[in-house]
Amino acid sequence: MSATPKKSLKLPPSIEELKKLRVPLRNVSKTVEANTSALDKLALWITSHVGTMGFFIVIFVWTVLWLGWNLLAPKEMQFDPPSAFVFWLFISNLIQLMLMPLIMVGQNILGREADARAEHDLEVNIKAEREIEAVLRHLEYQNSILIAMLDKLGINFGAELRKTNK
Hints:
Layout: H1 15-21, H2 28-34, H3 38-50, H4 53-72, H5 86-153, H6 157-165
């Protein structure tokens, strides 16, 4: 007799049955890109280029040249009074005011894409979990077959297991 109670296990699904249940994976990046408008693509392009060291260097060099020229050039060649740099501040503020909403739009679009990828990852994980459960069902079924074979041979599974663990 076996040390474990007999269970009536139903035959686990075959590989073909499991393959029929599978839903094909989709390319999330292509789906998101296909649903992105031209204006959204422009906002993404600006967001990705403004957030680079190249853009920082361009702004830094522009600022150094502007302020340096208006501080060091002869008075008659200066075009922005060094005491206030009003024109430089005006242009800098315009750049900031224009880029701030564009960057926010780009970040929102990137956030939606990240959410879509996260949802897709969840779907993949759920599929993997189902497949693991199927493997575990197959192992449990095989285990019950092995125990039934041992019972048929008159081998006490629990006693044999205790002997090997000593």
